[in-house]
Amino acid sequence: MIPIHGQPILTAAQMRAAEEAAAPTPDAMYALMERAGAGVAEAVRRLSAGAEALILCGPGNNGGDGYVAARILREQGHPVRLAAASEPKSDLARRARAGWDGPVERLADADPAPVLVDALFGTGLARSLDEGLTAPLHRLADAARLRLAVDLPSGVATDDGAVPSEPPRFDVTLALGALKPAHLLQPAARYMGELRLLDIGVPAPSRTRALARPTLPEPGPDSHKFTRGLVCVVSGEMPGAAELAATAAAHAGAGYVLLLGAEASAPHAIVRRPWSLEALSVRKPGAVVIGPGLGREDKSIWIPRLSSVLATPYPVVLDGDALRHLSNPHSFRGPTILTPHAGEFDHLFGLGQGSKIDRARAAAERSGATIVFKGADTVIASPHGDAIVAPEASAWLSTAGTGDVLAGACGAMLAAGLDPLAAAEAAVWLHGRAARRLGPAFLADDLAEGLSACR
Ligand SMILES: NC(=O)C1=CN([C@@H]2O[C@H](COP(=O)(O)OP(=O)(O)OC[C@H]3O[C@@H](n4cnc5c(N)ncnc54)[C@H](OP(=O)(O)O)[C@@H]3O)[C@@H](O)[C@H]2O)[C@@H](O)CC1
Ligand SMILES: Nc1ncnc2c1ncn2[C@@H]1O[C@H](COP(=O)(O)OP(=O)(O)O)[C@@H](O)[C@H]1O
Ligand SMILES: [K+]
């Protein structure tokens, strides 16, 4: 079982194509199912401490994995029972079924077991499940001590993370061969429990992957404050938000943070000047952050301030109110990161089509900017077609000001010389790690300060 960080994410069709390329004959395809089933059996043995497992098998290849796992567990002397709602429909599943010589119980009246394995439906779920399937699945899951989903919890939509039928909450989900969008996208992601990847020997290249631990830029003997990265944060109507972004930029590792348009206050390491374009340009910032607390009311002040920043050649992070003032569509030529939450994203790009990953990728391609589409399932997309999905870091991030902190961290990473995609990934990773370390009910101020300890 492999940790998911940095691993490729494939849609159902991409996964099918990868499997067909890796296994061009029925025997080779069946060998993949044997590997998947063996991995499931091994996970059950490791996690169950010898307790009886009940494996629920569906009509397709997800069910096939279940028959293989049941056979292997039985061969190894592990207590196992199997229940199905119908006979297998696919050739592979029929072949796997033929290898199981134990009884097949009826799903509707199967007795519970301490370990429940859901091999009902995986990437082939085509519509919502009927009551005859969901009721026993929930009944048996409620009675189990450990719930394990094979590939995906039955009831979630693979490609967009929608939940056409609510599954039980699983303790462990074993993604087979590669991650799928539903493993990380909400609302499906909340049903996964601990997510583990099982290598079944299928190369799975993809331009979409899970967030990875970045290599953060480190100062060296030749570094001085300006080579570390100079971040300029532009303040506005609500200076607290820009203060948070500036503090975050400093704690994320910037060598020099210049806050324009805010009164002097702590932290004293942040240099403060009245707003002017000259003050912004004098030190040629490595990144300009504008938007946190900029203001929406007095458009005659804030829109010209935003326009003058956008006319400079410096890399820019646009957040909050700056996103509200942008006209749509907008074409950015220099290194640009936009950090919209769902409301700002809809305002800028509309509802669009497809999954959150598809929408972020289309917005990045259209705008020429790297998009950080925030939420419990933050998606980062570059205008060149790459996308990165972050697993939920901490639900306690849902508090005012944490987005300002993220914008500041993005600025620090851009100013340190990372390209926008790498800068956004590093900032989202650092932000999530700091949030997890802080535990419950932290303030955005704590989060900004907590970034340094997480580098
Ligand atoms: N080589 C491989 O291919 C490998 C595949 N692997 C495994 O295969 C899984 C994908 O297999 P899959 O494509 O057979 O899909 P699966 O999730 O079993 O469901 C399809 C079946 O369910 C049915 N059905 C769908 N929705 C339904 C509903 N709401 N209510 C009732 N029925 C419904 C559908 O019937 P139909 O829509 O045709 O009526 C069909 O019979 C993948 O997740 C992984 O676990 C691994 O073994 C590695 C090798
Ligand atoms: N339920 C959640 N789980 C994980 N992260 C969340 C959740 N809600 C919000 N976040 C994260 O918290 C931050 C909130 O940003 P934003 O909505 O812009 O807040 P603000 O404008 O108050 O700073 C984003 O980084 C977002 O991804
Ligand atoms: K399943």
Automatic annotation (TrEMBL):
Gene Ontology terms: biological process: metabolite repair; nicotinamide nucleotide metabolic process
Single annotated GO MF: ADP-dependent NAD(P)H-hydrate dehydratase activity
Binding site for (6S)-NADPHX: 61-65, 122-128, 151, 241, 293, 341, 404
Binding site for K(+): 62, 118, 154
Pfam families in the record: Carb_kinase, YjeF_N
PROSITE patterns per the UniProt record, alphabetical: YJEF_C_1, YJEF_C_3, YJEF_N
Domain YjeF N-terminal: 10-208
Catalysis performed (reactions): (6S)-NADHX + ADP = AMP + phosphate + NADH + H(+); (6R)-NADPHX = (6S)-NADPHX; (6S)-NADPHX + ADP = AMP + phosphate + NADPH + H(+); (6R)-NADHX = (6S)-NADHX
EC assignment: 4.2.1.136, 5.1.99.6
Keywords per UniProt: ATP-binding, Isomerase, Lyase, Metal-binding, Multifunctional enzyme, NAD, NADP, Nucleotide-binding, Potassium
InterPro entries per the UniProt record, alphabetical: Carbohydrate_kinase_pred_CS, CARKD, Nnr, Ribokinase-like, YjeF_N_dom, YjeF_N_dom_sf
Cofactor note: Binds 1 potassium ion per subunit.
Co-factor(s): Mg(2+); K(+)
Segments forming domain YjeF C-terminal: 208-455
List of residues binding AMP: 374-378, 403
Self-association state and partner proteins as the record states: Homotetramer.
PANTHER family, A to Z: ATP-DEPENDENT (S)-NAD(P)H-HYDRATE DEHYDRATASE, ATP-DEPENDENT (S)-NAD(P)H-HYDRATE DEHYDRATASE FAMILY MEMBER
Family: Belongs to the NnrD/CARKD family.
Function: Bifunctional enzyme that catalyzes the epimerization of the S- and R-forms of NAD(P)HX and the dehydration of the S-form of NAD(P)HX at the expense of ADP, which is converted to AMP. This allows the repair of both epimers of NAD(P)HX, a damaged form of NAD(P)H that is a result of enzymatic or heat-dependent hydration.
Annotated protein name in UniProt: Bifunctional NAD(P)H-hydrate repair enzyme
Source organism of the structure: Sphingomonas lenta
UniProt lineage: Bacteria, Pseudomonadati, Pseudomonadota, Alphaproteobacteria, Sphingomonadales
